[in-house]
Design goal:
By secondary structure, this protein is mainly α. Helix content is 65%, strand content 4%. The chain has helices at residues 6-16, 35-45, 57-66, 83-87, 121-132, 134-139, 141-150, 155-167, 173-188, 198-214, 219-228, 238-245, 251-270, 287-297, 303-319, 327-333, 337-345, 358-368, 373-391, 396-411, 415-433, 438-453, 457-475, 480-495, 499-517, 522-537, 541-558, 564-579; strands at 25-29, 73-80, 97-103, 276-277, 283-284.
């Protein structure tokens, strides 16, 4: 049952007994979040692990457990919805790993569990004293006992009502009891009868109705609470809220609205225990409070506009995820991922047509950039399905969705599955955009690189040349896409031993990338490495070594020591030195 204090009890235990866990304390909120991604991120940022990116996703998780610091460790998985969804991510059955799970659901018989009941009357009364003040409660002790009983001794209900009383020092307990009774009928509409335990939940719902009524003189605070319910059931950074709510472009107006928003947050929501602030300075709504605000949101005439604004803010987040994200990019965007998923699943109907693919593409890139192709694939598949259903079979975004899905198959080495998808995307783009368009050139490039990887060099060469000429004509001779085509053509010639033709192309691509992207860009490292490969192939070891070294230094700095590209560059350098 929600509101009984599961999370708070787990938190207090972890804080009180953390000295018993020299191996560390790891707290992972599960509802609405990817436990595996969180665990890998924790391993990298908190434990300092260098997790090899070339490992499959679940192997990266197992790497974390294998390389966990010595000593007993406490792993807290908060608000688990389905045990089967987390079972494969649990630590190995070793005595040093202690796992604490909180859940509304009944666990499997094999799991030792503690059923939390509501508070005893004595403890409930003591909680109310701490919230409101001992003298005030003892003065109306009989009424306070009746209030605790009416609230079903549920901690969340007591916390809400206690906070309400603390904000209204002249309000008597009989009066608040009367107000709660008045809200009882409205509260019943909020309950899901399948939950059971109606009496305590009814008390919480009535307390929430009372808090809502208390905000009536500040409708902006009511609206803010409703807008916060659009976020996923996961912590969110306040900057995300600002991007959803503040609409002005003027810097002074922005700062003024920012201050007003913070005042609404702190004075009306946090102060009334309606919004939780974590030690990490992120915010979160309790599940029951979130559901309450969602019910109220549905009644607001501005609901559609608020949902559209939320989606636009999430689209902006998705657009910030580059097609080849670095580790820093992944770390920066991770907190927003549960909320981006909310836009891609629950709020799809409020995405504008021109923005429809962006949340899915952003999520796909997020997982693809970590090498977790199995997790990226469903988002690209959903993207394809939803663009087809919303935009029709023949639309440029459908072609883009096909192309992205083809990329996943390509990176997984599933060339036979990637080929028809790439071909379909190419033909669709030709029909919709004409034969002379940058997106057509991109499809040509992708298909050519696929043929190259399959060893079908005769089919790859004319496609790359065609894409290169198209890019030059449409984008100019000095463009990153031109550099990519030059690079790919050079690699093709290198593969078939046409070194004299390969060298100037790879060199030209390298210089162009340095000028356009900067000397330390990962694609510059790729060009340096491949130029080194060419020099090694032609016996020029002394020229190859510094190029390998430069590529490795850039990759270690920008991608991390265990990124697949970094590992490749390191191995190339080691093999070269072995041959010297």
């Amino acid at each position: 049952m929600g509101g009984v204090g599961k999370t708070e009890l787990a938190l207090q235990y972890a804080l009180r007994y953390q000295h018993n866990y020299p191996g560390g304390l790891c707290w992972l909120p599960v509802r609405g979040a990817d436990i595996g991604t969180q665990l890998i991120s924790f391993g990298r940022t908190e434990l300092g692990l260098t997790i090899p990116d070339q490992l499959e996703f679940k192997e990266q998780v197992r790497y974390c457990w294998r390389n966990w610091p010595e000593g007993t460790a406490l792993i807290v998985l908060d608000d688990v919805v389905d045990y089967q969804e987390i079972s494969s991510y649990l630590p190995p059955a070793q005595p040093r790993f202690k796992v604490l799970i909180t859940s509304r659901e009944n666990p499997e018989p094999s799991i030792k569990h503690i059923d939390l009941d509501v508070l005893s009357s004595k403890v409930a009364l003591e909680l109310l004293r701490k919230l409101v003040g001992k003298e005030r409660i003892d003065k109306e002790l009989t009424e306070a006992e009746a209030l605790c009983e009416w609230l079903g001794y549920l901690p969340l209900g007591l916390q809400l009502v206690g906070g309400y009383l603390a904000l209204h020092p002249r309000l008597t307990i009989p009066k608040i009891q009367k107000r709660l009774e008045k809200q009882k009928l409205a509260a019943k509409a909020l309950l899901d009868l399948k939950l059971g335990q109606i009496k305590p939940l009814l008390g919480v719902a009535a307390a929430l109705e009372l808090s809502w009524e208390d905000l009536k003189d500040c409708p902006e605070a009511q609206q803010l609470g409703c807008r916060l319910s659009l976020f996923g059931q996961a912590p969110f950074e306040w900057s995300l809220v600002e991007s959803c709510v503040i609409e002005t472009e003027d810097e002074d107006d922005w700062e003024e609205q920012q201050e007003e928003l913070e005042e609404l947050r702190d004075s009306f929501l946090v102060n009334r225990n309606l919004l939780q602030l974590s030690e990490q300075q992120t915010y979160r709504l309790h599940q029951l409070i979130r559901e309450f605000f969602q019910t109220k949101l549905a009644q607001l005439p501005e609901a559609d506009r608020y949902k559209q604004r939320f989606c636009q803010a999430m689209v902006a987040v998705a657009k910030e995820i580059p097609d080849t994200p670095t580790r820093d990019d992944i770390t920066a965007v991770t907190p927003a991922i549960p909320h981006l998923k909310e836009a891609a699943t629950v709020l799809t109907d409020w995405l504008r047509d021109e923005d429809l693919i962006n949340p899915f593409v952003g999520l796909g890139r997020f997982y693809q950039g970590q090498g977790t192709y199995d997790q990226a694939k469903p988002w690209y598949e959903q993207c394809l399905n939803i663009t087809r259903s919303h935009l029709g079979e023949n639309h440029p975004d459908v072609a883009t969705s096909l192309d992205n899905l083809g990329d996943i198959y390509y990176f997984q080495g599933r060339y036979d599955e990637a080929k028809p998808i790439y071909q379909q995307a190419l033909e669709m783009r030709k029909q919709l955009l004409g034969h002379h368009h940058p997106d057509v050139a991109t499809s040509l490039n992708n298909l050519a690189y696929l043929y190259h990887s399959m060893g079908r060099y005769d089919q790859a060469e004319p496609l790359i040349q065609q894409a290169l000429e198209m890019y030059k004509q449409l984008l100019g001779h000095h463009h990153p896409n031109v550099a990519t085509s030059l690079h790919k053509l050079g690699l093709l010639y290198n593969s078939i031993g046409r070194y004299d033709q390969a060298e100037p192309l790879i060199q030209q691509a390298l210089e162009m990338r340095k000028q356009l992207l900067g000397n330390d860009h990962p694609k510059v490292a790729t060009s340096l490495n491949n130029l080194g490969l060419l020099y090694k192939s032609t016996g020029r070891y002394d020229q190859a070594e510094p190029l390998y070294q430069q590529a490795l230094e850039i990759a270690e700095q920008r991608l991390g020591s265990n990124h697949p590209d970094t590992v490749t560059y390191r191995e190339n350098l080691e093999r070269l030195r072995d041959d010297l």
